[in-house]
Amino acid sequence: MSLLILGLVLFLGAHSVRIVADGWRAQMIGRLGEGPWKGLYSVVSLAGLALIVYGYGLARQQPVVLWNPPFATRHAASLLTLLAFLLLAAAYVPRNAIKAKLHHPMVLGVKTWALAHLISNGNLADVLLFGGFLLWSVLDFRAARQRDRAQGTQYPAGTAAGTAGAVVAGLVAWAAFAFWAHAPLIGVSPMGR
Questions:
Q1: CB neighbours of 120 closer than 8 A, spacing ≥ 6?
Q2: Phi, psi of 106 (to 5 degrees)
């Protein structure tokens, strides 16, 4: 469990610098340069991610059960994860109405993904992993919206083609992951196959 916690601290800590120390981040970028800062950020993030994956895998071998979620939460998790994939796609497909309206769909996608997995898993490792990501995404979304207001950030209006592209990309990515990739990568089939 300690490797999972260390990974979460590194990964979410690196991703929280803009939340808790945006001025320090700007100073470090000014001192180091943007390239070295991004390199350092990437190394810390990748180390954290590797520890999360390894630590979570170890924790799943000796689960500490906190509760047994009702079977219906799996269905709710599937629907919420579909929404998470739509939001994730909206972060990358240009000129879509989802991003124009929500401004930070990737962070909302992480929030939705974390909530989906939190309600459908009852082990301590799941609570730490998905609860940590849920808390981070709530704080990050709030900080990002505050930065937008302070800087007067404007988001381009969405188009029908951009929105349709985001929805199709999200649906395809969700179906591919849910039906084919989740079981071999994670070891659990979300569709019960």
A1: 69, 73, 74, 76, 77
A2: -65, -45
Return all residues near 15 (Cβ < 8 A) that are at least 6 apart: 45, 136, 140
DSSP conformation class of 15: T
Q: Which token pair is 160?
A: 């029908």
Taking Cα atoms as reference points, which of 123, 9, 150 lies closest to residue 59? 123
How would you write the pLDDT of the chain (193 residues) with one tens digit per residue? 999 999 999 999 999 999 999 999 999 999 999 999 999 999 999 999 999 999 999 999 999 999 999 989 989 999 999 999 999 999 999 999 999 999 999 999 999 999 999 999 999 999 999 999 999 999 999 999 999 999 999 999 999 999 999 999 999 999 999 999 998 888 888 876 4
What are the residue boundaries of the structural domains of the chain, listed by start?
1-62, 65-193
